TrEMBL record, chain A:
Keywords: Oxidoreductase. This is 3-methyl-2-oxobutanoate dehydrogenase (2-methylpropanoyl-transferring). InterPro entries: THDP-binding (IPR029061), Transketo_C/PFOR_II (IPR009014), Transketolase-like_Pyr-bd (IPR005475), Transketolase_C (IPR033248). One of its GO terms (biological process) is response to nutrient. Its EC number is 1.2.4.4. Pfam families: Transket_pyr, Transketolase_C. PANTHER family: 2-OXOISOVALERATE DEHYDROGENASE SUBUNIT BETA, MITOCHONDRIAL, 2-OXOISOVALERATE DEHYDROGENASE SUBUNIT BETA-RELATED. Signal peptide: none annotated.
UniProtKB/TrEMBL annotation, chain B:
This is 2-oxoisovalerate dehydrogenase subunit alpha. Keywords: Metal-binding, Mitochondrion, Oxidoreductase, Potassium, Thiamine pyrophosphate, Transit peptide. One of its GO terms (biological process) is branched-chain amino acid catabolic process. Belongs to the BCKDHA family. GO terms for molecular function: branched-chain 2-oxo acid dehydrogenase activity; metal ion binding.
């Protein structure tokens, strides 16, 4: 075959390059321009969202942070860098920590493992063959012999070959080992999840609900760099296997002040992001930003007051915080990207119905992905957006 | 598959272009292929995926081996119990061989009695090792006690050889309060931390990648990259030995994706792991002809770049020689996997839930029992050495029988574990959700006491309470 001309090569490279991560537009979703005249469904403003800590003071005010961290410095970083820092700290402080997966060694396809192989050696940070069941099974075995492997599945959409290993093995290891006390709790499985604008069927999924149906696992979804760092460190150090699902659209988009020192955030506590008195919105990961924008519009338009809760840990989850909030507001809306049927929203709504029945003034509303697959050009009508959350608030308070 | 692959490669390409300046220096591992372009008249192709491939102008497909050139089966003892290679010898003392023999007999006596006990309804389930005693006991005897073992389920001999007591077997089979598994697993799903054997799970082949991962953990410990984790070697050992992981599985399980995944990752990560396949001809009712069309499991080893040997599983000395040598190989150069295919015939039914005469002729089984068997072959050798005879055999069998029955009766009488064990060990600590569930269950037990018979459980119906008061 004749060699391609340099011009053609440049063209093909620029076509191959995903638009969303062009350096010139690091913080906006330029692939999905807002409709002309749109007021609600406009690009999310990560630079000004109240969900991110834009100042060092705000970041250090978090009472969950240990005293010495709150006295320390912060640094403005994005979510993938926060993941990288957590991994770096774990590798530095615990010789039992390993980081591996497909394409990890050069830094990872999302840059989460940048420089780790060079700094910690390829004995501890390495590529595996392209086999999810293999690398997760390998991680379980290493964990069962006392190591703390952090395995990466390149996209949550490709976790299914490892489903057997996660559901039948990782989750049941401690239980079936009985009094021998052997377990694989040192295991953490990281995976990028959620919509990214153009991921279609196999680069968009959020399969968390499948794992919240498995006793023995912890499922964690961070919403910001501060959380990614603290929750990932806690996940690596906990003695239970953890599925750590990183919303990939936030890898570069979510930038905030993050404490420079290492810290852990609790694995069983939800966080009230904004207090309110008329309705509670419960969500996690990327949709929190959608919710925040919808809340701002709704509060302005309807004069209502909305409480926003980030679940953070999807399983085991913090029922108390959610129920206390709903008992106060009397109304609840659950928002997530994955489909509605038997999703996380079903569990949260059922729990609210059971435990806060007498305080409810409206049915618990679920805003979730529709019962379909995420076809490439249909994402904007499938994934919950600001309009749908806004409308859910309207319907719920008007009920 | 191909689309998925290409779709996944798009991102890294784009990203790599973007951040090429920020690209860190990554130490190139020694095994990394380099895609150096070939010169016009080079002898070799130099494609990065097959560096040592030479050009040929002959269009010739590589054919799988025919029956005449199947991989040979290594043996040491012939069917008459005579050592074939005098130089290699049996490599055992008479006393040691006698112990192996007694353990094989013990296993077969236990199997017969437990199979019968299941038929009487006293056990819920059982699986015998008939015909494969030599593989389990022979290989276990060739390993170091601190080597880490993963098994499928037909390797009770490994436990026996390592020191699992009859009481421990029976406690597990009856799922009583002394059971290591706390009454959670089906019978025959043994496990022992002291003996460095991971608890068995029913899911086939899932343990194969575990063994690769465990072997990697051992490799890092052998090399001192990570401090030694877990129990020290047996008390008689004062100095720490280098350890290997060992994984057992049947030829049917080798069809699972986990087998492929495990051997491949074991080879690329160069782990000290011995994979031992028991090829006994059947996976429940499925004969090997419906399981694979290559030359057994051994022929696959080379494809993964793994040293491989096929061995006569009815010859305990051959198994021992093979595993000893495999252990040395596995520890060579920092570590590498080894595959052993041990040939056998599954003499017993697949399990107590199976009647194998529905799919194979009774005469075939009888023929195997009579013709060749690991126990009788070693017995012939022992008799040849003049250390064994009919009288000793009779005494051993009746004594063993009594021992097994005694352990059986004691285990059968013991109480079941406390019902709190239904909830503990799911996570490290009891979750709030679990606590709520236990409270609800406890309430049900209190209000409907006659609906539940929990007398046989330690602490009876109050088992959950002790966990509920402990906050």
């Amino acid at each position: 075959m004749a060699a391609r001309s340099p011009a053609l090569r440049t063209l093909s490279r620029s076509l191959l390059r995903p638009q969303s991560i062009r350096p010139s537009h690091p913080h906006s979703r330029c692939y999905s321009a807002a409709a002309a005249g749109a007021r609600l469904n406009v690009p999310l403003e990560y630079d000004s969202t109240p969900l991110l800590h834009h100042t060092s003071k705000a970041a250090l005010a978090n009472p969950e942070l240990p005293e010495h961290v709150r006295k320390g410095q912060t640094k403005r970083i994005n979510l993938y860098t926060a993941v990288n820092e957590a991994l770096r700290h774990a590798l530095q402080t615990d010789e039992r920590v390993l980081v591996f997966g497909e394409d990890i060694q050069f830094g990872g396809v999302f840059r989460c493992t940048m420089n780790l192989a060079a700094d910690f050696g390829t004995e501890r940070v390495f590529n595996t063959p392209l086999s999810e069941q293999g690398l997760v099974g390998f991680a379980i075995g290493a964990a069962a012999e006392g190591l703390r492997p952090v395995a990466e599945v390149q996209f949550a959409d490709y976790v299914f070959p490892a489903f057997d290993q996660i559901h039948n093995e990782a989750a049941k290891y401690r239980y079936r080992s009985g009094s021998t006390g052997v377990h694989c709790g040192g295991l953490t499985i990281r995976m990028p999840c959620g919509s990214v604008g153009h991921g279609a069927l196999y680069h968009t999924q959020s399969p968390e609900a499948l794992f919240t149906h498995t006793p023995g696992l912890r499922v964690v979804v961070p919403r910001s760099p501060v959380q990614a760092k603290g929750l990932l460190l806690a996940s690596i150090r906990t003695a239970d296997p953890v599925l750590f699902m990183e919303p990939k659209i936030l890898y570069r988009a979510a930038v905030e002040q993050v404490p420079v020192d290492a810290y852990e955030l609790p694995l069983d506590k939800a966080e009230v992001l904004k207090t309110g008195k008329d309705v509670t919105i419960i969500s996690y990961g990327t949709p929190l930003y959608t919710c925040s924008a919808a809340i701002a519009a709704a509060e302005k338009d309807f004069g209502c007051s909305v409480e926003l809760i980030d679940l953070r840990t999807i399983y085991p989850w913090d029922r108390e915080t959610v129920l206390n909030s709903v008992k106060k507001t009397g109304r609840a809306i659950v928002v997530h990207e994955s489909m509605m049927n038997a999703g996380v929203g079903a569990e949260v709504a059922a729990t609210i119905q059971e435990q806060a029945f007498l305080r409810l003034e409206a049915p618990v509303k679920r805003v979730a992905g529709w019962a379909t697959h995420t076809g490439l050009v249909f994402e904007k009508i499938i994934i919950p957006d600001v309009t749908r959350v806004y409308d859910a608030i309207k319907k719920t308070i008007e009920y | 598959m191909s689309f998925r692959y290409s779709a996944r490669r798009l991102r890294p390409q784009g990203l790599a272009v973007l951040s090429s300046r920020a690209q860190p220096f990554v130490r190139a591992p020694t095994w990394q292929c380099r895609g150096v372009a070939s010169t016009a008249n080079a002898e070799k192709v130099l494609f990065p995926g097959a560096l040592n491939s030479e050009f040929t102008s002959k269009l010739e497909f590589l054919q799988p081996s025919k029956s005449k050139d199947a991989i040979s089966t290594y043996r040491c003892l012939n069917q008459y119990g005579e050592v074939i290679d005098k130089k290699m010898g049996a490599d055992t003392t008479d006393g040691e061989a006698l112990e192996l023999y007694k353990n094989m007999v013990k296993l077969s006596v236990m199997d017969l009695l437990m199979f019968e006990a299941q038929r009487q309804g006293r056990l819920s389930f059982y699986m015998v090792s008939a015909g494969e005693e030599g593989i389990a006991i022979g290989s276990a005897s060739a390993l170091h006690p601190s080597d880490v073992i993963f098994t499928q389920y037909r390797e009770s001999g490994v436990y026996l050889q390592r020191g699992f007591t009859l009481a421990q077997f029976m406690n597990q089979l009856f799922a009583n309060s002394s059971d290591n598994g706390l009454g959670r697993n089906m019978p025959v799903h043994y496990g022992s931390k002291e003996l460095n054997i991971h608890t068995i799970s029913s899911t086939l082949a899932t343990q194969i990648p575990h063994a690769a991962g465990a072997a990697y953990a051992l490799k890092l410990q052998n090399q001192g990259i990570v401090g030694r984790i877990g129990a020290p070697a047996s008390s008689t050992d004062t100095k720490e030995v280098e350890r290997v992981a060992v994984c057992f599985f049947g030829e049917g399980a080798a069809s699972e994706g986990d087998f492929h995944a495990a051997l491949n990752i074991a080879a690329t990560r160069e782990v000290p792991c011995i994979f031992i396949c028991r090829n006994n001809g059947y996976a429940i009712s499925t004969p090997t002809s419906d399981q694979y069309r290559g030359d057994g499991i051994a022929s696959r080893g080379a494809g993964y770049g793994i040293s491989t040997l096929r061995v006569d599983g009815n010859d305990i000395f051959a198994v021992r020689h093979a595993v000893k040598r495999a252990r040395e190989l596995a520890l060579q150069d920092g570590g590498r996997p080894v595959l052993i295919e041990a040939m056998a015939y599954r003499v017993g039914h697949h399990s107590t839930s199976d009647d194998s005469f529905a799919y194979r002729a009774r005469v075939e089984v009888e023929d195997w029992k009579r013709r060749d068997n690991p126990i009788t072959r070693l017995r012939k050798w022992l008799e040849g050495r003049g250390v064994w005879d009919d009288a000793k055999e009779k005494e051993l069998r009746s004594g063993t029988r009594k021992e097994v029955l005694k352990a059986f009766e004691e285990a059968e009488k013991a109480k079941k574990p406390s019902i709190k064990n239904a909830f503990t060990d799911v996570w490290e600590n009891i979750t709030e959700e679990q606590r709520a569930h236990m409270e609800e269950m406890n309430d049900i037990l209190k209000r409907y006491p006659k609906e539940y018979d929990l007398e046989g459980y330690e602490g009876g119906a109050k088992g959950l309470e002790e966990l509920l008061v402990k906050k």
